[in-house]
Design a protein that fits this description.
Layout: E1 12-16, E2 19-22, H1 23-45, H2 52-75, H3 77-80, H4 98-116, H5 120-145, H6 155-160, H7 167-172, E3 174-175, E4 178-179, H8 183-205, H9 211-228, H10 243-273
Helix pairs in contact: 1-2, 1-5, 2-4, 4-5, 5-8, 5-9, 8-9, 9-10
């Protein structure tokens, strides 16, 4: 491998006296605001309450962060046993999980929908493209931190693929004297593809209510399953079982099951009401 290596990108975006702002935070917040803008546009198009998603994000975002942290700590409990109790809350030291964030967000959205007397599935469909786009953007925070990467690449892989990536990506993936798989990039690209699919489905197909969100979960889970197998920082349930892969399989099965159940129920209700199908 012959490549001129430059120093890694500085993780600090800005320092204002005692306040340090990191690129990771800037990228995550940017993803949230871009997703919120996208969801708000769709909300306006559908004639729903203008501030619906602004109100939702005020509750969902902090809960998502907390649940993402607790999810991570639960599967890494041995790491925190015996240490100071406040380490459990030390998010600034790293350690959050997207599946935990999604669980917290979905529960919050269900409660929010009941309070606002709107359809959870409609909210979920509106949010789906925003969620996957936010995840695609957020992975670049992992890139800056040189985390969530795969194993060391082979000479053949580097020469046939990696050396053709932009220099700043190749340089950032040079860690401790070796080049690593940019799995952050693989997942970001996959998420962009799912995002594009969701926009096409929403515009051209107009799927049944709830199925855009379920498609998002299935699409993301399929990509995450394969990419997770390449990562070196996976959480494990038991032995060599990677938590994210197990969760991904469960989500795919559950979402497909929900789609089938809702379609059959809908058809049965239409038959019962005497409507043609």
């Amino acid at each position: 491998m012959l490549f001129q290596v430059s120093p890694p990108i500085d993780r600090v975006f800005l320092e204002l006296g005692p306040l340090t702002i990191y690129w990771y935070a800037v990228i995550i917040v940017s993803g949230v605001f871009i997703g919120l803008w996208l969801a708000t546009r769709e909300t306006d198009r559908l004639g729903l309450e203008k501030d619906l998603f602004t109100d939702l994000i005020m509750f969902a975002l902090p809960i998502a962060i907390i649940s993402a942290r607790f999810y991570y700590v639960a599967f890494e409990w041995e790491r925190y046993q015996g240490g100071p109790w406040w380490d459990v809350f030390a998010i600034w030291e790293g350690g959050i999980a997207i599946h935990g964030a999604l669980i917290g967000s979905v529960i919050t959205a269900i409660i929010f929908a009941r309070v606002k007397r709107v359809s959870f599935w409609q909210l979920a469909d509106i949010a789906a493209p925003s969620l996957i786009l936010g995840q695609a953007i957020g992975r670049w925070g992992n890139f800056i931190n040189q985390e969530a990467h795969g194993g060391v690449v082979s000479d053949a892989f580097f020469n046939n693929f990696m050396q053709y990536l932009p220099d700043f990506i190749v340089n950032q993936m040079y860690i401790d004297g070796a080049y690593y798989h940019p799995t952050f990039l693989y997942e970001s690209v996959w998420n962009i593809l799912i995002f594009s699919l969701l926009l096409v489905l929403r515009k051209k197909v107009n799927p049944r209510r709830g199925e855009l969100f379920l498609t998002y979960v299935i699409g993301y889970s399929v990509g995450r399953y394969f990419i997770e197998g390449m990562r070196t920082d996976s959480l494990y349930i038991i032995g060599s079982l990677r938590t994210a892969q197990v969760i991904s399989i469960v989500l795919v099965v559950v979402c497909i099951g929900i789609m089938i159940y809702r379609r059959k129920t809908n058809m049965a209700n239409r038959r019962y009401s005497g409507k043609k199908i």
